[in-house]
Design brief:
This protein is an alpha/beta fold and about 450 residues long. It is built from 15 helices and eight strands. Bound molecules: iron/sulfur cluster (SF4).
Length: about 450
């Protein structure tokens, strides 16, 4: 289907079945029964790939950063290209080496054919870590993380109309308590004021913004064009995410087949643009943009060990910070952090844990049952249910307890407060958790 067959890298299961077109691992939307949240009648194809790779001892092959589709090839066979490459290597030599007991020789000859095909010159993906190629932090968020400060970021909901009064008010409300503010990019696949416009408003109010870019609504061309211009708007922090499926958005549903690039590919492309000064097509760029690159991470979307493979890949591709999905279970968080530690990446990425103060039992239930990758332990659900009228206070206390525990964890560099429209709670959370900067 894709014209660029990756079956050896994906445990011999074709990833094209993924409705989001993911080429580099699962999104954060696996259901508790390991099905796909876009089509719950099917298993998440990436979960199947990870499980089979684990059984076959091929997990590390999943780390190679795979390119976006070359749409000219989509629908064509890969075999013609394979035959051409085998001829280049020499058919007799290829067969001899492939049947050889010498593992190194076998793998070298195999790669001379298949790596050339799956990693075209314009991409050159690999499984290695590429440290950022600059010294001085490009943003205040990066500077504070770099200096070892436990950082607080938050999110302000973009408006549903062209008036920015409420946006400006919310920005002013949280400004004294945070280092940076994220603006979501059409979250839940619903149109809202663009993240880029909200970032401009934040800069006008002297607050540092984090620009979120969802792959769902982004083509490779649009991404590169937007990024070239962001520094001019005072934007240096960029969070690359896949985005919710169009299926969760309002009717009439937009195409679900437009995923041109995934979040790992966005990171790879933008890191190379920044550090190597090249466009995706390999052309040189004179003045590359300065970027502090982040991504989302979903510690509980499936087993922590499997999630860690995807997170490792994101770090290799270029992620310098993670903002995680909502965390309500700090013991389970330890399992994920341990897996990242085993992969030796805790010192290569700053981790900001997602915290949401719960305003009501209804919100708690909704997050637990409807939001992919989020689950609340029974004791928290029961505390919220029993709290009745006092639910906002109970929810705030739960958030404060979580922060207290999270602050002590190895590898955690800050929190990311997702207030879910309850911006006024940010002051209380930051002050009572002792995180207010003097
Ligand atoms: S859960 Fe996400 S990664 Fe898995 S098949 Fe569905 S859309 Fe693809």
């Amino acid at each position: 289907m894709c014209g660029n067959c990756l079956l050896q890298e994906t445990a011999f299961i074709c990833p094209m079945e993924c409705p989001k077109g993911m080429r580099n691992g699962p999104c954060g939307g696996i259901t508790p029964s390991k099905n796909c949240y876009v089509d719950e009648t099917r298993k998440c194809i990436w979960y199947c790939i990870y499980k089979r790779a684990e059984q076959l001892g091929r997990e590390e092959m999943l780390l190679e950063v795979l390119p976006p589709l070359d749409w000219e090839k989509v629908g064509t066979e890969t075999w013609g290209e394979v035959v051409r490459q085998v001829r280049k290597t020499g058919t007799a030599k290829f067969i001899k080496d492939i049947l050889s007991k010498d593992k190194e020789k076998k793998s070298k000859t195999w790669d001379s054919v298949f790596k050339t095909i799956r990693q075209p010159d314009w991409w050159q993906g690999d499984s290695d870590y590429h440290a950022p190629d600059y010294k001085e932090p490009v943003s205040e968020l990066e500077r504070r993380l770099h200096s070892g400060e436990f950082v607080v970021a938050t999110e302000v909901t973009p408006p549903l109309n062209a008036n920015t009064d409420k946006l400006a008010k919310d920005i002013e409300l949280v400004k004294p308590y945070v280092t940076a503010i994220n603006f979501t990019d059409s979250s839940s696949a619903r149109p809202k004021m663009s993240s880029i416009a909200c970032c401009k408003v934040a800069n006008d109010h002297t607050v540092e913004p984090v620009l979120q870019i969802a792959a769902r609504d982004t083509t490779r061309t649009g991404l590169q064009s937007d990024i070239i211009g962001v520094n001019e708007l005072g934007i240096f922090n960029v969070l690359c995410i896949t985005g919710d499926s169009a299926k969760v958005g309002p009717s009439p549903m937009s195409s679900m087949n437009i995923l041109d690039i995934d979040s790992v590919q966005m990171l790879w492309l933008l890191r190379r643009m920044r550090d190597e000064g090249i466009y995706l097509d390999g052309r040189k760029m004179k003045n590359p943009p300065k970027l502090f690159l982040g991504t989302a991470s979903s510690p509980f979307a499936s087993e922590p060990r499997l999630q860690a493979i995807k997170d490792h890949k994101k770090v290799n591709a270029g992620a310098q910070f993670f903002q995680t999905n909502l965390v309500f279970d700090d013991d389970r968080l330890d399992l994920w952090l341990e897996q990242l530690d085993k992969r030796n990446i805790l010192d290569k990425v700053y981790i900001l844990i997602g915290i949401a103060p719960l305003k009501s039992f209804k919100v708690a239930e909704y997050l637990h049952t409807k939001v992919p990758g989020v689950s609340l332990p029974d004791n928290i659900l029961s505390r919220m249910e029993k709290a009745g009228e006092g639910a906002p206070e109970e929810g705030t206390q739960i958030a404060l307890e979580l922060i207290e525990s999270i602050k002590k964890k190895k590898g955690v560099n800050g929190i990311h407060i997702m207030s879910l429209g309850w911006e006024s709670v940010v002051q209380r959370i930051v002050t009572d958790s002792g995180l207010l900067r003097k």
